Amino acid sequence: MQPKHWIYTMPLRLRSLFRRRQADRELEDELQYHVEQRTLEYVGKGLNPREARRAALGEFRGIARVTEECRDMRKVNFLQDFIQDIRYSSRVIRKHPGFAAVVILTLALGIGANTLVFGVAYGVLLRPLPFPSPQKLVTLWESNPQKGAPQSQVSAGNFYDWQSQNSVFSSSAAYSNWRFNLTGVSEPENINGALVTPDFFSVFGINPLQGRTFRPDEDKSGKDDVVVVSQSLWNRVFGYTARLSGQTLTLNRSVNTIVGIMPSGFGFPSSATEVWMPLSLDETNKQNRDGKWLKVIARLKPNVTIQQAESNLNVIAARLQASYPKSNANWNVVVISLHEHLVGETRTTLLVLLGAVTLLLLLACANIASLLLARGSGRINEIAVRFALGAGRGRLIRQLLTESVSLVAIGDILAVLLAYWAVASIRLLKIEAFPRIQNLVIDGPIIAFTLALSLLVTAIIGLLPAFRASTYESLRSGSNRVATGPAIQRQRKVLVIAQVALAFILLTGAGLLTNSFLRLSHVNPGFQVDQRLSFQLSLPRSRYKTNQLQVGFFSQVLERIGQQVGVLGSGGVSDLPLLGNRMSFKVLLERTGPTGAQTPPEAGVRWATPGYFAAIGMSLLNGRLFSDHDDATAPPVAIVNQSLAKRFWPARDPIGMRVRLEEDPRWFTVVGVVDDIKQETLDSTEGPALYFSYAQKSEEWLNWISIVVHTSGNPRDLARLMREQVLSVDKDQPITEVATLQEHLADSVALPRIRMLVMGNFSLIAFCISVVGIFGMVSYSVTQRSHEIGIRMALGAQPRDVIWQFLGQGLRCTLWGLALGIGGALFLTRALKGFLFGIDPLDGVTFSLVAAILLVVALTACWLPAQRATRIDPNITLRYE
Prior knowledge:
Elements: H1 5-18, H2 20-44, H3 49-60, H4 63-72, H5 77-95, H6 97-126, E1 137-144, E2 149-152, E3 154-155, H7 156-165, E4 169-183, E5 189-196, H8 200-204, E6 210-211, E7 226-230, H9 231-237, E8 248-251, E9 254-262, E10 275-278, H10 283-286, E11 292-300, H11 306-323, H12 325-328, E12 332-337, H13 338-343, H14 346-377, H15 380-388, H16 393-429, H17 444-469, H18 472-477, H19 486-521, E13 532-538, H20 547-562, E14 567-573, E15 584-589, E16 602-608, H21 612-616, E17 620-623, E18 637-641, H22 642-648, E19 658-661, E20 668-674, E21 689-693, E22 704-711, H23 719-729, E23 736-740, H24 741-748, H25 750-784, H26 786-794, H27 799-828, H28 844-869, H29 874-880
């Protein structure tokens, strides 16, 4: 039985791999023996020794070629050749450091930008939530499009009916974000927390690190004095080594026993949540179907889809509509996956950014391919010599590709370092525009994406130059003049046209976003933001149970703040503008003829102190503002905004008109009209709004206030002083959300600013790359055609003729690129429509301006090398040739 071929040849291959020199000497000796034997045979046939040796060598078609073919038969030369190619590539890179630096930097920017944006997109869109079977987690919302509420929070009465009647959830829970005053520590804190129903933790399937979660009966009064805390809060208050048994926390003046500690990876409703307390409602509140203030999360049963769950809940909703028509008419249910809910509108933003970095990478690849093509054309003599010495075309292509791989590998390392630096910067800046952004890491999937991207880039930038440089025509010519051939010129022009087109698309997108951001930034919010400090106070209901106590506390704080040096004015409001807060209530108008409303309309409602309007700089259009006399003993008064006045009393003076809330039997007399403000966001339209005097509030649940302080200097300098004034009234009362109104304004446009900056940086890089590409094409053309230019100038050509020739060459490429770029931008910029404010995605001014800038800069990039061409001495050129 014959041994297998690979077993027979394996010792020879191993010897060739690890004892290469000895194997090469033996091969050379064997070939030399065969040449000598053939030489002796020809001598025996009558040829002289010299002719005989020449004839013998001719039979072998070159010793070097035969040697390479024999080495290839060993099947191990690929490794030796690869090491050899790596060494040669390193020598080439050291020999041309400028060229290598341009290529590596371009690759690093292109690949690094893609790595970073993919990392953000993966972390936000693709990375699974840190819960068991996260695809089974859904959020539940009430929906009534007829009332402009396609996705509303849930009433307690409806939630408990859903929970008891559904057949699609293994568990469900309701929760509400809450803030707690933590006292009994070195300095009082206001911490993020949540009120949750007992099944809250079972929905997520997360067990506590220590202790337990809530029992089913701990949502009842008398048993709800328990709390679950985060590991970070436990470590901060009690230390790492403290024992759980018997530990308590004083939250909102109530002592609560800690029953469990959640692991550090758990954070919901937000990563900042540190405390969870039972949602304790009496039977009356559990049946309330008007107040929609709860958020609901649930876990689907196995094999149940979101569509099936939504259908099941809408069957229940139909029964509730029939049973409670007054509160539930036209209210249905919407089921959304938890992941989709958390991602929100950032999905479209990230997809647009991914598209932008893809265009940037393609532009970088086109530029590098153009550079490598030009450089390969300049190495034709070298490649022809190597071909003559026995190198095959495949071997030449592998060697040229190895050079590309070496450049890409170095670019990869730099790209990953840039991505790591960018991630660290994002964490340091604490950008909150994207959900889960603080958990961004450069890990295995992102590194794998970078490697896959690198292979694609290598194929794009390496194959065309390598095949072109190793073509038979190039090798046969062995002359640099082949670089001026039609095929080479055509390929390089196509690459330049592609660069201009891609740069135009990116610049147009950046121009639209920049224009939109500038328009948004110049929107008048309706109030002043300069030299204004704001902070929030939230009083514990256990101590401040009545309106009188709450109003008294806030009045004392504002009085002390107003007495401080550097304070020009101060006031408070229930909902500070630009934070997305908008409480709305049904408003009843006193029927005084045809202007009386037939159905109760809704309006935004805010409670404000007398000094608020002056402190924030709102304009009074008619009547008066609140005064200190508008207290609980005075007739109820209200101030309306301009939108409400025009809607409810379009042909009347609103001063003296009376309104009331559906929940409040008191009638309020309108005493003033103020200008509209941007309550939610700068790009939103303010609807009808009412302002009531805080001193006349009847809602004891309204135990919070946002205070605005108008300062004469830097408002941040008074932050500590404000905290001291609050503590002087109540030593256990912390303040939260300390920020200037300038910072709130900046936060409200954070996402548009990020879009603008990212697209702007990408387009700037693309602009530079395209300019370098045009300059390189014309400059290299000047170098390659120096002989032709010298002859033409010797025959009488004028310098302007030479300049116009190269300007025309660059201009044609630029115009073709602009034409393709405009076509692509007309299609692709439609994706930006949802991100633009006050500008059309097909804005002609932006398109024209970008085209003009690219055209002018491209002509300048062509003119510089063309001007150099006119200084060529024809005598020197002809003598050299």
